[in-house]
Amino acid sequence: MAVYAILVSLGFFWLADGHVVVGVSTHEVLARCIVASFLVAIIISLFVEIVSVWKQEGEDADD
């Protein structure tokens, strides 16, 4: 699932990279995109981890 989160964040990075912000340097835009992609990857991986733990606890309760 972590690979999925990385792929999604790279997709966001690719989409955001195509947009040029007026008055902001390209390096700053790239830096913001990289930071945003890492944040998205962290949020998605945490969400996936929480859901998997929640499902596992639900299965343990059924036994």
Descriptive keywords:
single chain, 63 residues, mainly alpha, 2 helices, 84% helix, transmembrane helix, transmembrane
Characterise this structure:
Keywords: Membrane, Transmembrane, Transmembrane helix. It contains two helices and no strands. With about 60 residues, the protein is mainly α. It has one domain. The longest helix has about 35 residues. It starts with a helix and ends with a helix.
Biggest sheet record: none
Secondary-structure element series: HH
In round numbers, the mean pLDDT is 72
Number of domains: 1
The 3D shape can be described as rod-shaped
As residue ranges, the low-confidence spans are none
In percent, how helical is the residue content? over 70%
Share of residues in strands:
under 5%
The total beta strand count reads 0
User: From the alpha-carbon coordinates, what is the Rg to the nearest angstrom?
Assistant: 17 Å
Structural class: mainly alpha
Number of helices: 2
How far is it from the N-terminal to the C-terminal residue, by CA?
26 Å
Transmembrane segments: 34-54
Keywords: Membrane, Transmembrane, Transmembrane helix
